[in-house]
Every structure is written in structure tokens, then in C-alpha cells.
Amino acid sequence: MSRKITIDPVTRVEGHGRVTIHLDEKGRVDESFFHIVEFRGFERFIQGHPYWEAPNLVQRLCGICPVSHHLAAAKAIDQIVGIDPPDLSPVATKLRKLMHYGQIFQSHALHFFYLASPDLLFGVDAPPEKRNVVGVAVENKDLAVKGINMRKFGQEIIKALSGKRIHGTLAIPGGVYKTFTAKNRDYFLNGSDQNNVDTMIEWSQQMVDFIKSYHEKNRTFLDEFAAFPSGHLGSVQPDGAMEMYDGLMRAIDAKGNITLPDVHPDKYADYFSEAVERWSYMKFPYLKDLGRKKGWNRVGPLARVNICDYIPTPLAEKARKEFVEFTGKKVNNFTMYSHWARLIETLHCAEVIKELLLDPDILSDDDLVRKGEKRQTGIGIIEAPRGTLTHHYEVDDKGKITRCNLIVSTTHNNDAMNKAVRWVADKVISEKKKITEGMLNQVEVAIRAYDPCLSCATQAMGKMPLKAELYDSNGELVDEKIKN
Amino acid sequence: MKKSKTEQNQTLLIGIGNTGRADDGLGWLFLNRMEELYPDRFEFEYRYQLQVEDAELISNFHTVLFIDATVDDLPDGIALKVCEPATEYFYSSHMQSPEAILYLAKTLYNKQPETSVLKITGYEWGLGKPLSSPARQNLDCAADLFRKNYILQEEPSY
Q1: Which residues contact A37 (CB under 8 A, 6 or more apart)?
Q2: pLDDT in the model for residue A465
Q3: A85 in B contact zone (CB under 8 Å)
Q4: Which of A8, A256, A345, A353 is deepest in the core (most CB within 10 A)?
């Protein structure tokens, strides 16, 4: 009897996805898919809008990482008004970076504390009613409070700069519309409550120590679970340092060979193409030179730590060195190490935020906006929390957008997530007569490690019911689990 | 960062919804109306959905009222109920119930503000659609109920 297992939707990820696993008569995995079945539309309906609306319109793609879309679009639109990233004023660049690092900090905190930590603290087989952030709050109050305050800190930085925690505005074509105040800076630097940047650095360091300790106790699980070789893509500074806001695109293969040699963002279309599959609305980007099957790359924290030569802040660099020691400085292809890499990045963000807060340029109210000679194309690439994010706009003579192409971070991880699902299907579910909730959660654990933002990836709005179904070869429902 | 109003006001009104989706905006429209009538008397927060960190927010207040649209067919189109802490948890990070938020405030911050939920029945949920006429009537009823329960009770009688 062949069977089909459906996990619908995948839980504790941003947005809604579905997994199907097809088993043959002997219960072996025949094929598996991670489907994204929401409708995409932003690339189309933004056409016809004036270019200056883009940074505010596209951030509505998401309620978790709107800042990334706001800034990637702004970088592209800067070029429409004749300003390349190096030509932006120092105050505008630094204020945008402050918001960007605040965004990554809060997003990483959200993922680790709210979404991932229940699996690590309670185990992948723990009862689902315990395996959530409420369970974390009950059993590990200190961790939960730190998670909430770290997320709040990042969100308050965003709010101080853009007026709102979600969907505010800082960037305008060629710069920023307002500067930072000394009162705000002092609050984040020296605030008397727990929300000051030194506390954030201290707590971020504690989280790195937490995952190192977890690694010591669970190394086999971290080394083996959903591990597979792949390429890795991210951005670096010209000297190879990790770069989140404005860098060169670098990719390596599973052994560390360079497959994309520090390419300027303007050239992305020369190197990347996107494939589609009939079973998903999410695209599959890949490097043209290597082709569809070999050219896909993981993106996000693990990839960024893999591709950079160093991290340009001291505590995060120390943490990176410890991280790479575990693989003998070889490329880390272990899916579950994404959590560790994410916490190293969280620490890096906190350090960068402090550097920026101490920089007097952020208080300047001169030279907020610059303008050059208008152009008709703009490309903005940024390292969003989940990975490399590309916004590309073309406009007509009247400044109306005629074409928009978005390569959203999560789409780069599309192949990786499908491969991770297949790994769990083969190793955990194959040839098992009874499918348990714990087994299904392991499929989700593999996907969750990539922190996918599925609403971003398809630019969708939607809601799905939550159930897992098991069908026999005649299409009869033989088992069903409801998760809520 | 905003502390001055919080120090003065001990009551927080949280409107949940989205004015871009017709009657789903009832919570926000209710807040708009109250903010116009009583700008300095309450603290106002607008939410698309409740999130875990809202537990920290409500822990700073004595009284909290969540206002949200509902598909339930309520008598007079409204219902005001006391909210009790509960461990119900939604599978997504960014869609929690008032009960779960209250539970987290109690567990993490040892605070349990007097909390109620005001539900207002909606009928239309389409993207870009305006508020429906029956929902507007329910909004009026909700405003009256609020005045009775939160305004008149605080005002001295002569």
C-alpha cells in the first residue's frame, strides 16, 4: 500500500507551507516536497506605481522583516535618483545600517527564542503542548524574558528611527528623512532599565555560550540531523569581512571553492537565474554557470559565517573562530549549526549597534538626502536576517515602475529545505508503520533551522488549516493528526 | 521609550485588526474614535496581531482592554468579557490570543492586569473594502458600552 503524508501547514515558521511525503508499498520514501502554495503578487502590482513609493510598498511583504525590504528597495531607488551606495551621505548610511542591524537582531532573537528554542530545550519528541514559547516561559523564565527584551530592543531601535516597530519609514530616495536624537542614543546606550546595548551584548554572548554548551551535549544530533553538502552564498566587504548592509556577493561550494568571486550587486543578473516547479509558488534561484541542479546555494547565518574570512567585531569574531574549529575550518554543511551561526550573528549585530550608537555622525541633521543624475534601473542587495535579498526595479521616463524582480532570501534556501525534508523522510519516517507527531515535528525542525519567511518568499497573504493526513494508495484517509 | 503617558495612564487599549480588510479594522477604528475623544486618558496600541512581547507591554498597566473584530454573531453585535490567563498557544510566532498574552505576563513578569476583551461582530473581510454598514452600527454600540463601563464609572456624579 503506497501512502502520502501531508503536514499542513508547517508550524513555528513565518508564513504557511505544506510538506507531502509519498511512500511506496513497503513504506519507503518515494518522493517528498516542501510546497509553498500561497499566491505571489508584489512584483506585478507594484508596476505602474511611482518609484518613490517602492520602499514603503514592498515592506508590506512581511511583518517580521519589513526593514530588509524597505532598505533593499531604498538602495535600488537611490540609484534611480542617481545615488550609488558609496555616494549616500555618511549620516544616511549609518542610520540605515543602525535600523538594519536592529532588524536582524530582533528577527534572530524572535527565531531563536520563540521558534527554535522549544525544540532544543525540550527535544524534538516533546509533547507539542509543551514545545512552544509558553512552555519555554514556564520552564525557563530567564531565557524567555531575555528573548522578549532582546526582540524589544531591536524593535525599539527600528521605532526610534522609522516611527513604528513595523512598517515605518526611514529611507527616502537618496537618503533618510530624519536623523537620530541624542535622547534616543542615550536611551539605547545608557538606559537604566535592561534595554541598553551593553546588556544586549552580554545576553547575546550568553546565548552563544548556551548553544556551545548545547553542542557539547548534543553533538551527534547537530552533526547528523539533516546534514548535506551544498553551496553557500552571502555578502562580504572587499577584504572578505562579513557584511550585512552593502557588500560584494560571494558564493562557495560545499568544499570551499569559490563559485561566485565577490561580484558587485549590479551584476547579479549575469550570474543568477530562477527556476520554477509545478508544485510550489516559491522560485528556485541558482548560479547560471553551475546550472539548476548544482548551482543552488544556502543563504542566511550559516552561509554567511561559512563564506566570510572574518567578522569585523571582536566578540563575534572570537565566537566564529570557535565555531569553525569544530569542522577543522572546513565548510560547515550541517543544517542544525544554523542556530549557532544565527546566535553569532546576533552578537555581531549587538556589537555593530553599539559602534553606530557611539558614532557622532548619527546625530547630524545635515546632508540627509543627496541627488544625482536620474537613471532608469536600480538594484539593491542586502543581507536580510534570512539571507541575500535582491530588489531590482526599472522605471520609465515618468518615473513609473515598469519592472520589478525580487529574489527573496528564503527562495535561495528552497532546494536546501527540500533536501532537509527528504533527509528526515528517509532517516526518520521511511519504513515506519505508524507516523508519530514527533516524527512529523522532525520534518519541521529541519525546515525551521532555515528560518524560512514564506510570506516574503511568495509575497503572499493567507491562512491555512493545521492538519497532517495519511492516505493509502486508493486515496482513503487512514490516519489524521490535528495540531494546534 | 514612551513613558510620560504610561506613567499617567493606567489603562491600555489594544486594538487588533487591519483596516485594509473591511470589518477586520473594527479594533483600530474603535481606537481611533477613543483616541479622538479621550486622547490623554488612555494609552493606545494598534496591532495586526498579538505577539509574545505584548506580555511585557501589558505588564506595565493596571487595566487592559483588547478590542477585536469577530465573525461570531453576538447579541447587539458586541460582547465584553473578562479575560483570564490561559496557556493556549498558536503555532505561529505572531498570532497569540489575549488569554495567552495575559498568561505570559503573569508567568514572566508576575503581573496580572485587570483584562477584558471587547469583541465586535464584523461581516465583510475583503481586501480594500470599506467598513460595512452593520459593522459600523456595532462599532457605535461598542463605543456606548465602553463609555458606560470605562468612562462613566470613573467620572464623579453630582
Answers
A1: A16, A17, A18, A280, A281, A464
A2: 34
A3: no
A4: A345
The complex scores an ipTM of 0.79
Contact A138 B107 (CB under 8 A): yes
Tell me, yes or no, if A142 comes closer than 8 A to chain B by beta carbon: no
Distance (Å, rounded) from C-alpha A188 to C-alpha A196?
5
Are the C-beta atoms of A283 and A411 separated by less than 8 Å?
yes
A184 touches B: beta carbon within 8 Å? yes
Closest residue, chain B, to A183 (C-alpha): B1
Query: Taking every pair of C-alpha atoms in chain A, what is the biggest distance, in angstroms?
Result: 72
| A138 contacts B52? CB cut-off 8 A | no
What one-character DSSP code corresponds to residue A388?
Answer: E
- CA dihedral (A10, A12, A14, A15) in degrees, to 10, reads 30
Residue with cell 556589537: A351
The DSSP line for A148-188 is HHHHHHHHHHHHHHHSSSSS---EETTEES----HHHHHHH
Range with lowest mean pLDDT among A18-27, A70-79, A373-382, B124-133: A18-27
CA A186 to chain centre: 30
pLDDT in tens, A402-412: 999 988 888 89
pLDDT at A355 over 50: yes
pLDDT at A26: 80
Report residue A472's pLDDT band, with 50, 70 and 90 as the boundaries: low
pTM of this structure? 0.88
Q: Which helix (H) or strand (E) covers residue B32, if one does?
A: helix B26-37
| Contact pairs from chain A to chain B, CB under 8 Å | 65
Question: Is B91 close to A63, i.e. CB distance below 8 A?
Answer: no
Q: A371: distance to nearest CA of chain B, Å?
A: 34
Burial B86-115 (b: 16+ CB within 10 A, else e): ebebbbbbbebbbbbbbbbbbbbbebbbeb
- DSSP annotation of B147 reads I
pLDDT in tens, A328-350: 889 999 999 999 999 999 999 99
User: Cell 524593535 belongs to which residue?
Assistant: A155
Q: Looking at domain B4-151, which CATH architecture does it have?
A: 3-Layer(aba) Sandwich (3.40)
Chain B positions in Cβ-Cβ contact with residue A141 (cut-off 8 Å) = 107-108
CA atoms within 13 A on the CB side of B45: 22
Q: Best residue in B103, B108, B110 to probe A by mutation, most A CBs within 10 Å?
A: B108
Determine, for residues B87 and A134 on separate chains, whether the beta-carbon distance falls below 8 Å.
yes
The CA distance from A200 to A216, in Å, is 24
Domain ranges of chain B: 4-151
> Which domains does chain A carry?
3-40+430-482 (no CATH), 42-412 (1.10.645.10)
